[in-house]
Amino acid sequence: MGDDACAFSIIDNTLFVSVLCDGVGSAKRGGSAARQCVKFFIDQFKTRPKAWDIPKTMEVFTRHINNLLFKESMSQYEKIELLTTLCLTVIEGETLYSLNLGDSRIYLLSSEGKLQQLSTDHTMDDEYMSHVLTQACGLCENIDVPILSTHIAVGDTLILCSDGVYNLIDNVSFLELIQKGLGAKSIVTHISQNALPKDRDDMSLQIFRIDALDPLHAIKNAPLPIPETLFEGQVIDGYTLLSPMMEHRRIWKVSKSDELFVMKFPMNGDDPQALDEFVREAWYAKQVTHKAFGHAWVPKERTMRYYLMELIEGINLRDYLKNRTLSIDTAIELGKFLHKAEAHLLHLGLVHGDIKPENIIVTKKVDEAGVTFKMVDFGSIVEIFSLNSRAGTPSYLAPERFIGGIINESSELFSIGVTLYWALTGVMPYGEIEPFQTPTFKTPKRPIKLNKNIPGWLDSIIMHSIALDSNERYSHYSEFFYELKSPEKVKPYFSKGSSLIERSPVTFYKIAFLVMFTLEVLTFVLYISK
User: Fold this and answer.
1) Which pLDDT score is estimated for 513?
2) What is the pLDDT, as a whole number, of residue 201?
3) Contacts with 98 (C-beta within 8 Å, 6 or more apart), sequence order
4) CB neighbours of 334 closer than 8 A, spacing ≥ 6?
5) β-strand pairing of 148-151 with 235-236
6) Cβ(327)–Cβ(462) under 8 Å?
7) At residue 254, what are phi and psi to the nearest 5 degrees?
8) How far apart are CA 127 and CA 60, in angstroms?
9) End-to-end Cα distance, the chain
10) Which terminus of the chain has a lower count of CB atoms within 10 Å, N or C?
């Protein structure tokens, strides 16, 4: 095993971290120090305190791992044996933060073709002692941690490498290979093949070509105030606040030029996580363009932190169905509507996260019979496969969500199924589940037993959607939609635990008849034999 180690991670889709270490060969456990150091940074950045900025995080973590290596060397060997170079880079928004200890290097190749070395070689000035490090991770108890911040842009290339790479190739040749678009493995192979065996050393190279940057970081850090109090008649950027739409008074009905809109503000300006969630909510909202949702946008010229939404006139589905249930035809339309809404979000890599009657607005069709639907609550939208336990309402959550399961198409289909079950029967299949409760799920009654108007094929679709075992549930929206629009193709659905009489009454009674007949025959034969 070589003495080099490297790794990278993209954390929460907002932070890029890369680490490269070259264990000092003269130290007995240089390779071990390199591997320990790399693992430490990748693991720690995943659980870093959110209140710390990136430079503070880098400094605290670097000092910590340095002390760990130094003290372990002293306690086990009474001299420095856990020693490694360190290159650490972090990209947040449009800023690259970098630090290095030792002689491994960090380069930035701009989109214009300019190669810049961001690191400093911490070696002795004497040409005969140039291999001796003046700084390294684990070298001494107190270290300097210089952190450089550099603006980056799409098209730039980040490069980290050990001295085994740059010692065998000049900058011009190195630049040519990178600009050809070669990968790190190909470049290392090329350099190694053109070097003498005696000059070869462990070679580590990481190349990251920047195709996109997180736009949310710049939006979050825009100098926009968050109003502490809001009141009727207040004018913000030409919009007049008319009335609050929620008790917390952070969502308002507003008017401008005789048109009505909805204006939403962050809940708390002092909570970095709450602000981050609001910025993400506004960003997702303006990406959603399907007619199933109301239009949302962020004005370019704002003097405060908010975003705007189309005002949707209507009532939510729970209030609409007060003291009644949904008709079969309307329920089918609702199912198709929810599929289209979720399918659009899936195209954006998102899921709604909180499908329930309160988030479905019912409006009357103009000059037509029937109703139309709209989805609301952009605040619940999250990226698909998120491990977001805060998203959703307990009574509509799939069982796996209570034990840390991911949010995916299957878990969203469970919420759709529960919503349809309730809309057609007025009953929750698994009962009302309170927040923070760890529920016990029991097999629900089939909806057809609560509402005789429900056709058998729709009953099967709903039961298929709300299956407790995710392996028995629909996996994809397309499966659900196909059966919803093709009733004749729907096969009767029964969970694995269903009894024979429930799955096939005819078969059950045939078997029961045969068993009883056999018992009668045996009884008769025994009687005759006496």
Assistant:
1) 62
2) 74
3) 87, 88, 89, 90, 106, 118, 119, 147, 148, 150
4) 317, 326, 360, 373, 419, 420, 423
5) unpaired
6) no
7) -130, 165
8) 33
9) 86
10) C
- What counts of helices (H) and strands (E) characterise the chain? 15, 20
The two three-digit tokens of residue 215, written as one number: 């736009």
Using CA atoms, how far apart are residues 249 and 228, in angstroms rounded to an integer?
10
Secondary structure of residue 267 in the 3-state scheme: coil
d(CA 268, CA 280): 15
Q: What backbone torsions phi and psi does residue 264 show, to the nearest 5 degrees?
A: -120, 135
The DSSP bridge pattern shows strands 315-316 and 307-310 to be unpaired
Q: Tell me, what's the pLDDT at 1? A: 45
- Residue 67 has a pLDDT of 95
Q: Which token pair is 9?
A: 């991670």
What is the H or E stretch that residue 516 is in? helix 505-529
**Residue carrying the six token digits 């880098």:** 58
CB 290 within 8 A of CB 341: yes
3-class SS of residue 244: strand
Q: Which residues pair with 259 in a beta bridge?
A: 256
Q: Tokens at residue 56, please?
A: 């503070």
Residue that has been written with the tokens 């704002």 in this structure? 302
Gap between the Cα atoms of 145 and 58, Å rounded:
9
Torsion sign across C-alpha atoms 69, 71, 73, 75 = negative
3-state secondary structure 464-488: HHCCCCCCCCCCCHHHHHHHHCCHH
Lookup: tokens for 62: 């670097």
Q: What is the 3-state secondary structure (H, E, C) of 18-71?
A: EEEEEECCCCCCHHHHHHHHHHHHHHHHHCCCCCCCHHHHHHHHHHHHHHHHHH
Contact 83, 27 (CB under 8 A): yes
| Token pair recorded at residue 170 | 């000049």
**Which of 224, 228, 219 lies closest to 276, judged by CA?**
219
State which amino acid sits at residue 477.
Y
In angstroms, rounded to a whole number, what is the distance separating the alpha carbons of residues 208 and 158? 5
Element (H, E) at 217: helix 215-220
Q: How many CA atoms lie within 13 A of 100 on its CB side?
A: 25
Q: How do residues 130-172 score in pLDDT, each as one tens digit?
A: 568 999 999 998 898 999 999 999 999 999 999 999 999 998 9
Q: Say what the pLDDT of residue 439 is.
A: 86
Which residues, given as ranges, of the chain have pLDDT below 50?
A: 1, 128-129, 500
Amino acid at 37: C
Torsion-angle region of 494 (φ positive above 0: left; ψ -120 to 50: alpha; else: beta): beta
Enter the DSSP assignment of 132.
S
Q: What is the C-alpha to C-alpha distance for residues 428 and 441, in angstroms, rounded to an integer? A: 12
Neighbour tally for 504: CB within 10 Å: 15
Using alpha carbons, list the distances in angstroms from residue 501 to 67, 443, 519, 525.
69, 15, 20, 30
Which of 281, 307, 304, 305 is closest to 216 using CA atoms?
281
Measure the CA–CA gap between 335 and 357, rounded to whole angstroms.
Answer: 12
Q: Residue 18 pairs with which residues in a beta bridge? A: 8, 89
Q: Which residue has the tokens 């214009």?
A: 112
Q: Tell me which amino acid residue 482 is.
A: Y
